[in-house]
Amino acid sequence: MELIPTQEEVVALLRQTGALRKGHFQYPNGLHSDMYLQVAIAMRHYETAKLLSVALSRKLRSHPELRAIVPELSIVTPATAGLPVAYGVCEALRAKQVYWAERGEEGGPLRFRPFLEPEPGEKVLLVDDVLRTGRKLTELRHLIEGKGAEVVALAVIVYQPNPETPKFEKLPFYYLAELDAMYFWDSEAAEEKVKELGMPEKVWI
């Protein structure tokens, strides 16, 4: 495998570790899909986490403006799924620091812990394991910019867009693999597709 694995190699690795599965899955928002992805299942293995983090860091280093500011670059992620990716990328890049935003015990908006938030003018790289709906990353970007910091790029292991995924215009965007899942709002349509493709029974996630 090369230093930056191909799309096919990344997908094969996700399948091998059980992070990527085919079937019929229903997400909490009611959306049905033929594909289930949880990158954390792959990242639990040290060698896999290292391989994916280094590969993503090499894509980031190909951007000359990012490469020039790496020593002062902060890696920020939504907790908790993005943390293994953020720490892996930070180590591979030798960036300045990692911190994260999280929701309170009763939910609510993303927030930083006391004394752990961006400073005005700080250069920030947004990192997560998957870009799917983009809601958390959009919220986190607004939170960071509201503190006066600057988001300079976005990086994820897997880009898995659905019909609601926003576009992060003018923001450099890096990923290792793109997955085209099928999505259905209608349960009956999803069931028909499952039967047609011979997939397993529905799983709620």
Task: Explain how this protein is built.
The chain has 205 residues and is an alpha/beta fold. It has a single domain, classed as Rossmann fold (3-Layer(aba) Sandwich), CATH 3.40.50.2020. Helices cover 35% and strands 30% of the residues. It has seven helices and ten strands. The strands form two sheets. A six-stranded mixed beta sheet has the order 5-4-3-6-7-8, sandwiched between helices. A four-stranded mixed beta sheet has the order 9-2-1-10. It is globular and about 55 Å long. It starts with 6 loop residues before the first helix and ends with a strand. 32% of the residues are buried. The model has no long low-confidence stretch (mean pLDDT 88).
Q: What are the key terms here?
A:
six-stranded mixed beta sheet, four-stranded mixed beta sheet, globular, 205 residues, Rossmann fold, alpha/beta
Please outline the helices and strands.
Layout: H1 7-16, E1 20-26, E2 32-37, H2 39-43, H3 46-61, H4 64-69, E3 74-78, H5 83-93, E4 97-104, E5 107-111, E6 123-131, H6 135-146, E7 150-159, E8 173-178, E9 183-184, H7 187-197, E10 202-204
Parallel strand pairs: 1-10, 3-4, 3-6, 6-7, 7-8
Antiparallel strand pairs: 1-2, 2-9, 4-5
